Amino acid sequence: MKENETNNQAMDEEKLEAAVMTKKLPQKKFYRQRAHSNPHSDHDIEYPLTPDRMDWTTLYGDYANGRTVEFADVGCGYGGLLMQLSPRFPETLMIGLELRVKVSDFVTEKIEALRQKATTSGDTGAGFKNVACLRSNAMKYMPNYFGKGQLTKIFFLYPDPHFKNRKHKWRIVTPGMLAEYAYVLRPGGLIYTMTDVQDLHEWMVAHLSSHPLFERLTKEEEDADPVVPLLFESTEEGQKVTRNHGSKFPAVFRRKENPVEKN
Amino acid sequence: MALLNVSDSWIIISATSKLFFLQRKGKDLETTSHKIIDVTEVSTSLPFVRTTYELEENVRTNQGEKIEMCCSAISRDGQLFAVAISSKICLIYSLSSSIEMKRAFRVPKAPSVITFDPQGEHLIVGDRAGNVTMYGVSEAIFSDDKLDINGEKTNFEGIPLTGGITMMLDVAFDEIGRRMITADRDEKIRISRYPDSFVIEAYALGHEEYVKTLAIYKNYVISGGGDCRVHIHDFDTGKTVAVSERLHDKKPISQLQVVENNGKLNVWSSLEDDSTLTSIAFDQIFQQAEQVKFDAPLMGFYVDEKTRQIYGLNTNGLSVHSFDGESHQLAIDSNVLEAIRLAKNPDINYFKNVTHQNVDEYKKRKAAKFAEVEAKKGKRQQSLASQN
Lengths: 263, 388
Ligand SMILES: C[S@@+](CC[C@H](N)C(=O)[O-])C[C@H]1O[C@@H](n2cnc3c(N)ncnc32)[C@H](O)[C@@H]1O
Hints:
The complex is a heterodimer of chains A (263) and B (388). Chain A is α/β, with parallel strands linked by helices and 263 residues long. Chain A has helices spanning 13-22, 57-60, 80-88, 101-120, 138-145, 175-184, 198-210, 219-224, 230-233, 236-243, and strands at residues 69-74, 93-98, 131-135, 151-157, 185-195, 214-216, 249-255. In chain A, strands 3-2-1-4-5-7-6 form a 7-stranded mixed sheet, with helices on both faces. Chain B is mainly beta and 388 residues long. In chain B, strand 2 (10-15) and strand 3 (18-25) form a beta hairpin. In chain B, 44% of the residues are buried. The model of chain B is unreliable at 55-59 (pLDDT under 50). Chains A and B meet through helix 1, helix 4, helix 5, helix 6 and helix 7 of A and strand 13, strand 17 and helix 4 of B. The site of S-adenosylmethionine has 24 residues of chain A, from strand 2, helix 5 and helix 10.
């Protein structure tokens, strides 16, 4: 993402009007926002004090009853991956976590529009009732939303690379953060990473591989996973990389069982 | 900050750049004289650690910098004392008949909490950047890959244990040192394995504000902080067992100590900028609170179960209250008093500092925009209607 995209508040009124009237898909250009928000500063983020206190029906309606969220797309951006996953896993609740206010609002509006469209067209599947987006900081509040071993898949697609050394602590995959992700991920659950930045790819692979609670999937296992093809093109960042003829470096890791404690 | 630590044989007061070691004897002090150590010399002479990117650190010195105490601890066996100072240095002393400095080393971030592990082999330091690191008590230890918790190459000693995007406010251990419990500014308590802290066993959540102080008793984690209530959590699951009434309508809990009284859990707590110490017994539920009044706001306190005494440190000095109500001021030297009064508290606000109400502002802008569009549309329809 470009560093200095302006905080574009000048909305294209004609288009917005149309969206208001017909609940059509919202247009990204109304929702562009500065590319970076510092995950280390205090934001006015609302989060539950404990996972038990989270009312998921505000996001999924009745569809949340009897179901728990199992997939988390961290830094979901404009939400392309979730829209692809939704019909493929109709019984699974999935959540996008996005730090930028406007971007997460865009995803929420888009999901709302897709749900309405699904209702009118007589969609018999989940009708996008299994997807939602939360404006939150995934580097701080995962344990507030999810209990121990609740998630089965976590996605990190095209995360911000934070090239400068000083900003490495902003990177979303670090040895310290991996302990938290491992806590909310069930043994056997998977972490998917994808980036066009080779340095970042090597960084993520190095830290995930050396972490005692993760192991990389073999090439064969990776090829057999039906989700892997979605990592390439389903998000807007992925499409941008394709347009720019960039490279793509996917990797998948399995959450191992906790080691047996010695007495 | 003025700090108080008490062992069976020592009372240690740390303030400004000075450490005062007072020998205890029964209910009183052995003598009014004591050993004084000024840490300025160590602070200015200890070589800097070359960092890979923070260039300004390489040329900085601690010369002339005013030193303040950050945090301190005594080992379980009472044989070791450690203190972290504002020039980001940790010092370890052995407390036998004479007091000797064992080690001094630099740490990369401002320390906010320091404690010995129950084994007494390591010093655990939590910092303002949200990291917890393990240091050797007798010699420097390093991780194999020399990476810090953010995955960065580091030249500093120590083995990283945990890291988060918050400020570490307290670290505690269970009796046998298999679990490490950490408290942070984001209302969280984390229960990790020790030393294999990459396995988080549970989170103990429910605090409405930051968590400043922790204590462990049998199968309970007890905590206090910004929401002015004592919380009790199950040690294995982190689930809330009980939450006390507010101890005060605004003043946060600053320090907790648990004491066993007739086989029952007794929680002692002090409040920020307050001269009252509260004790609440807990047996399935919280019992009626009892209070002990000191003559000025407490900087630190210590409850000794064995001698049934409560020590309180404040700007008037050090006073002792016995469990049966008797109290007196200990005779301490005037230079100790002077240091206590000169000591500066760190200028940190643990409460969240949210300046940008991003969401509210955004919602307002969006609503206004949409209203405008609707209005225009209404007008256009009107004019269309009038044309027809
Ligand atoms: C480069 S974008 C990629 C977006 C999307 N995954 C895609 O592939 O198009 C990275 C996104 O992560 C978000 N982000 C960064 N740090 C975050 C955090 N700590 N919590 C939640 N989202 C975060 C950013 O706001 C940004 O939208």
